[in-house]
Amino acid sequence: MEQHAVVDVEQAEAALIEHYPRLVRLGYLVLPPALGRNRRVLTAHALVQRALPRSRGAEVAAVPGPRNGDDPGYAYVRQQVLRAALEAGRPRGRWQLPRPGQLPPLLPQVWGLRLFPRSGGADELALDQALAALSGPGRAAYVLRALESRTDRDVRRLLTAAGVADPGAALAEADGVRVPAGSRDAALLESVEFDPCSLQARPTDLMRRRQHTRAAVAAAAAVVVCGTLIGLPSGGWGEDGPAAPPYAQNAAAEQALDPARLTRVSPTAWKSADRPGFAAWPARGSRTGDTALLRRALAVWARPGSSVQVTTTPGTPSGPAAGPPQLLFAGDVDAATVVLLHDGLRVVRYAESKGGTGGGAALDFARVDAADEDSATAVVLGRTDGNVRYLTAPWVGDGAGDASVRDLLKPDAAGQPLHRDGDGVTDAMRSPLAGQPTPNDCRSWPALQLGGHLVTDLGELVPARLTTGSPAASGGPHDVDGATPRGEWAHAACHLATVRGQGVRSVNVWQFATQPLPGGGGTAEWSCTRAETWRGTGSRVLADFRAPSAPVTVVARAEGSPACGAREPRVLAGVLWKSHGGAWYALAAAGGGDVVSLTATGGVHGSAPGPLLAVPAAQGAQAKVAARLAGGGTLGPLQ
Question: Which residues of the chain fall short of a pLDDT of 50?
């Protein structure tokens, strides 16, 4: 017969204080991922803090007697946290009050900040996605087994005491979790990715908060003034949703607002298209026939109201469509309902809260003119708590290896498969921009591999394509398709954060020179990273220098320069370098061909034939370098 321990309140409180971080981690891992990381963090802390009985001095019956030398107080508090976390994930009846965790907790509460654990690597992301696919009891079984080192018998007892109807099914579900190769369950669950006590803080959307505050004040004033004259509507949005009042009627504008006139492409049109791009994408999603939703999306695009948050990439007009646009997607994505439209120049994303009965909406514009099969591989459907979901192109195959996640900082690691549904919608993957990474604080950079193409999220609707190779080579830069190109990106990936939000279409890395260092210092590598935009202007170019056993150093940068690109494949850069013996040298390298010699002037004097230069220099010397070309011209340094 099962024995039960009796625990007094003081004993339970002492256990809670001693094991608080572990209890909060347990609650965070078992809570439903749909809450989002910020709310899961706060809810996990709230569940642990509410795990004690209300009155002191009383004795409370604990869970089934603790095993393996467990502290009875800890066993009691753990059971309370487990029960509350599982309860938060269960559906409730129509007339039932929300359970703990289904609404923001009363305490603790943080205003104006989003709190979330620090990001881990690709292994942690893969495990997080695997846990998100489990039911609440399945997650609890996995976590108790791995984090608490419980046997299956113990797990059955704990789940039964927490109200789980079928612990055996939960254990079977946990058995199906595939942990990344070479990792240990407990080590991953104990990483910072799943630690709700070691947090990063970021502000919420400041502009939206200000808009909401002003809107709330204006709404309150309107209710006070007009409340006695008219009744408030009970039907939520009208047929146009949160759109502004209509303007003067125009035949073309009216056609652009008619859901029946939306262009819908055949599912196989891309197979015969002369240039497969967004114009060849079929309409996908579960709500492509929802006329009311499509009407709201079109009306808000034409006349976004004051409650609509509008974002555009640089150089992208945000005006209405000239005629009926093309429907790419309509469906529910996490907690939002999303419509993707395309008018030949732009991809437009309309998003509203799931249900679409009130509140604000979001409208995002991205320029995508002249998109082709290489650049129209995916579109962002939604972002939640640092994760991102994509709608992939119809030509991305359905094989297990056709969509995967690669960490650019681990070039030798295999990609982690990324599941997609029948419409081509991916599971959530970690955005590399989560946590606002900088080149000096960059631990991983997840990128999306779609067949032969590698793309990355730069904070926009359309991910940027990553390539490698010389712009002067036949066919130009190519896909990142091997260990050597991935190794080049491992050194350049963390600098991608400097081009976020710039309307970037593609980023190419090219190792244009290797240079033997003076004094037997080994061999240095010179690389050029070029980010090109959809609008054709505003490109950014970085020149990197990497000596053995030293971090990558950006030695030159330029904006709007043709260097290192198809129009001007040549590039020249220099750096002042200190050898292991303490001597200083002015180094320079050129790439792209046709370089006869390099010359240094100013604070350093010297020259050398060919594309490499190494001249002794004084510390802090200012040198100017120039290259002489075979045709008699000159090439200046990147600046």
Answer: 1-2, 57-59, 61-63, 65-66, 92-107, 182, 184-185, 206, 219, 221-235, 248
Q: What is the pLDDT of residues 244-289, one digit of tens each?
A: 666 545 666 677 789 999 999 999 999 999 889 999 999 999 999 9
Are the C-beta atoms of residues 547 and 524 closer than 8 Å to each other? Answer: yes
Identity of the residue numbered 145: R
> Cβ distance 405 to 311 under 8 Å?
no
Can you tell me the distance from the alpha carbon of 165 to that of 159, in angstroms, rounded to the nearest whole number?
8
The Cα angle at residue 409 between residues 407 and 411, in degrees rounded to 5: 80
SS3 560: coil
Residue 594, classed as helix, strand or coil, is coil
Question: Using the 8-state DSSP alphabet, how is residue 591 labeled?
Answer: E
Amino acid at 325: P
- Token representation of residue 121: 């690597």
**pLDDT, tens digit (0-9, with 9 covering 90-100), for 217-228:** 554 544 444 443
Q: Which long-range contacts (CB under 8 A, 24 or more apart) does 93-101 make?
A: 100/43, 100/46, 100/47, 100/50, 101/31, 101/32, 101/35, 101/43, 101/46, 101/47
Q: How far, in Å, CA of 323 to CA of 326, rounded? A: 10
Asked if 326 and 312 touch (Cβ cutoff 8 Å), the reply is: no
* Residues in CB range of 286: below 8 A, 6 or more apart: 330, 331, 332, 423
Tokens of 43: 């809810």
Please choose, from the candidates 482, 484, 385, the residue with its C-alpha nearest in 3D space to the C-alpha of residue 435.
385
Instruction: Concatenate the DSSP letters of all residues of 315-380 into one string.
Output: T------SS--EEEEEEEETTEEEEEEE-SSEEEEEEEETT-SSS-EEEEEEE-TT--TTT-SEEE
Collect all residues with Cβ–Cβ distance below 8 Å to 431 and sequence separation of at least 6.
383, 386, 387, 388, 446, 457
This prediction has a pTM of 0.66
- CA 224 from chain center: how many Å? 43
